[in-house]
Structures are given as C-alpha cells and as structure tokens.
Write a structure and sequence with these properties.
CATH architecture of the largest domain in chain A: 3-Layer(aba) Sandwich
Number of domains of chain A: 2
Number of helices of chain A: 9
CATH superfamily of the largest domain in chain A: Flavodoxin domain
Strand content of chain A: 5-15%
Structural class of chain A: alpha/beta
Shape of chain A: globular
CATH class of the largest domain in chain A: Alpha Beta
Distance between the termini of chain A: 43 Å
Radius of gyration of chain A: 19 Å
Order of helices and strands of chain A: EHEHHHEHEHHEEHHEE
Oligomer: homodimer
Number of strands of chain A: 8
CATH topology of the largest domain in chain A: Rossmann fold
Helix content of chain A: 25-40%
Largest interface: A-B, 97 and 97 residues
Chain lengths: ~260, ~260
C-alpha cells in the first residue's frame, strides 16, 4: 500500500525522529511505498490564509472555505498545498508522528490540516464521515508525551485520553472518512532511559508490521444520525457522545441555530 | 482590569473581526485596559522551534521544554515571544477570539500557545492546575463555527461540545491555573443572515459587560488527586473524567509508565 507519514518535530535527533526513521524503514521493508512530509524540514507554512490560493474567488474579503472550494474547482491551490494534497490523495494509510503538546498536535501539524484538508478537496457538504472522501482508507496517530499514562486514564488528572483525542480522531480523521486505527502512544519518554526507549521502538515496529490487520475505532455511521444527532434508540458508543448530564455547558440548545 | 485579547482570523472584515472590535470597544468602554494580539496582523510565527530562544542550553540537540526553561532563566526568549509573555503576565483576563477549525483552534493560535506558554515561564513542575502561574486570573474562549448547535449536543453527530473543548479548557487554560469561564459560542454564522449576526453581537456585548461576575467552570483541585488520578471516593465532575467503560482505548495501563 501507499503510506503518507506526516512528521512534525523540530529535532531530527529526537525520539520522534527515531520513530519516523523506524516507520519508514519498517514499512518500506514490508513492501509498502512510503512518502514523508517532514513539516519542520519543509519549513511548511502553518498559517491558513490568502497565500493558500493562487487565484481568488473574492478579492475583497477572504473567506477560507469559499476560497478553498474555488481553488479546488480551478486547480488553484498554492504549490505547497497541492504537493501535499497529491500525496494525501494517493495514500492508503495516513500516519501522523508528533509530540503531544497541550493535549493536541504541534501548530505546524494543525496548520497542515487547516490548509491541506481543504473544503472542496478533502471534504464538502455531503462528503463527510462514512460518505467522506477518504472512506476505505486508514489513518493512525503516533505520538509521544511526557506525562505518565495514569494521568490520562478515565479518572486521570488530565482526563481520559480517548476523550482528549476525540477532536482529532473524530473531528479531523473520521470526519473526512478515514477508518481510524487505535493510536500508538509513547508515554513518559523524557524519563524512561535508553533501554525503555529501545523497547518502545520495538513495540512500534511490531505494531507497524500488523497495521493492515488492525480493527478501526468505532464511529457512528450516518444511518445512526437524524437531524445532526443520534437517532432515538441508538446507544451512544463513542468517547464523544453520551446521553448523560453535562458538566460544563448548559444542556439545551441556546445559540442561534 | 487588564485584558489580553488574542485574536486569530485571517480577515478583518469577518464576523470574528467584528467580535474583536466589539470586545475592544465594550471592555475599554467599561473602564478596562485592553491589549490585543492580532496574530494574523502580527504575522505571528506559529512554529515552535530553535527561533524561540536567542541563546541555547544545548546547541547540538533542540529540546523545546529544556530550551524554554533555559530561556526563562536567562531572559533569552525571542523578542516576539517576550512581547506576548509580557502582555500575558500583565493580564487579569485572557480572551481568545477565533473560528473553530477542525474541532480546535487555528494553527496560528495553537502556535501562540506552543511558543508563549513556555515551560519555566507559564508553568513548570509543581506550578500547574490550582497551583499554576495564572491562578486567580480568568480566561474565556469566544469562537464561531459553521455547524449548528445540535451537532455538538451530548448526543450530537460531532460529540458533546464540552468534551470537544476539554483539551483547550483543561489541557491549556486550567492546566496553567486559569479560572476558565463558560465559552461564548456563535453557531452557524455563515448561514444566519445580518439580523441574527447583529443579535449575536449584542449577546456578546452583554456577556462581556457581566464577565467579571461569571462563575468559572469546575476542575478538580489538587486535593482531589492522588498518584495522577482522582482519589478514591472523589466523584468525577468534569467533562474529561469518568469511571465508566472506555469506548476506544484499552482500560488498563499498558504503556511504558
């Protein structure tokens, strides 16, 4: 299969750098074709804006979604985006390798999403979730973090990791149609020492070699949804959805629409 | 009070731009001192890396946390970071105004966090959560999104908004000590028309005028935590923590540490 590895770490001589090298060697060695987007190495522009398109739909007011849609129709994405889109569209497996910063991805990787997952190209109205552009393809996060795993257990200080990952797993990957594989999480890397780091690399190698057989995470299919919500009788079965009491927000519809 | 408004939108003539102008006028009019970090206007560098510091602890290998800690001790942050740190340290209220992209903030705003919330300056070991640098200060998100509110209800297609916000509310703001105020969320803005947009601006104005009396969201205090987890007998009371069954991840500690 074709693999796109999007790698976001400022230092090649880091554990993330070793993970990237290992992924390329392991997947290539298994006969896959591996493309790497080394975002720091590329000096990738992280900031979505007017530079994303070479012709404008509206010269007076910049609306990102409208300009992305226009560029998708005209083939008018900036070259740095088009290169990434071409790799993305070719890839059967999308892998992210990054350090978790602030319960999320580094800005340079978020910027890659903001700019490359463009409206009209990676999704549009009607082409989302299980009707998305990338249905039938697989995606996986691999990331490091300094916190111990205990802090991200369901009753952990930092909250349940599967809820922390919901905005990425659901809001980025599943939303555009990917089958999302369970993440590969490397905890406490700054503190574990050489032997444990080596063991972690071996654990990653084994995971990569079995990745084609991994069972994806569950997200509710469109058939479960009615008027933007789970249909009556559908039991919530993801980390993001529930029918319990809210803790931080009012429970009723209060906004504009 | 002193207010820092961090604003992240590529187009001044946008609804977000109107929200920014309204916030400045309303809060200034109420006697507060308002500072604005217009990240697109500044051309703010979103990418944490070697350019963040003017002297290095380790010239050979770049470790972001270690270099931030070193720069905090030496007063050696890059000027663009130091300017933001000075505003941040002076502010009693931190306001973010942004469009929600991919269930999160635009990369330029995430990059502001990655770079300005520096280890050694905005937090360090022992100075987090209710012992954090920013305890006694308040923070609030204000953001727009195109999706209807129904999609982010507890059983919504996109998952419960309070879970979507957990990585930002908990993992960024509460983690460094802020009292996090309920967010101001403007739904469906591209579709509602002029009258509803005007009404939404008025709703924001009223909210800003009462912001000093707002009750913050609840996060478990350090007294509730034992070994990185809620102590036995402490009932989980946030959107991030629970003692139920996981849906996406294995339930037991499986990583390195």
């Amino acid at each position: 299969m074709k693999v796109l590895l999007v790698y976001a770490h400022p230092e090649a001589k880091s554990f993330n750098g070793s993970m990237r090298e290992l992924a390329v060697a392991t997947l290539s060695g298994a006969g896959h074709e591996v493309f790497v987007s080394d975002l720091y190495g590329l000096g990738f522009n992280a900031v979505a804006g007017p530079a994303d398109v070479v012709t404008r739909k509206n010269e007076g007011v910049f609306n990102l979604g409208l300009e992305q849609m226009h560029a998708a129709g005209e083939g008018a994405f900036a070259p740095d985006i088009q290169v990434e889109l071409d790799k993305l569209m070719a890839a059967d497996l999308l892998l992210f390798q990054f350090p978790m910063w602030w319960f999320s991805m580094p800005a340079i990787l978020k910027g890659w999403i903001d700019r490359v997952f463009a409206f009209g190209a990676a999704y549009d109205f009607g082409r989302t979730w299980d009707k998305g552009v990338f249905t039938g393809r697989r995606a996986m996060l691999s990331f490091t973090l300094s916190a111990p795993e205990a802090a991200f257990l369901p009753d952990g200080r930092n909250g349940d990791m599967e809820r922390v990952l919901w905005p990425i797993h659901a809001g980025i990957l599943a939303l555009v149609g990917y089958s999302v594989l369970p993440p590969f999480i490397s905890h406490g890397i700054p503190f574990v020492g050489e032997a444990a780091m080596h063991a972690e690399l071996e654990r990653f190698r084994a995971r990569l070699l079995s990745i084609e057989g991994d069972e994806p995470l569950f997200f509710h299919p469109s058939a479960d949804i009615r008027d933007y919500r789970l249909a009556p009788g559908v039991e919530p079965a993801t980390p993001g959805q529930h029918r319990g009491t809210r803790k931080h927000l009012p429970g009723t519809i209060s906004g504009l629409r």
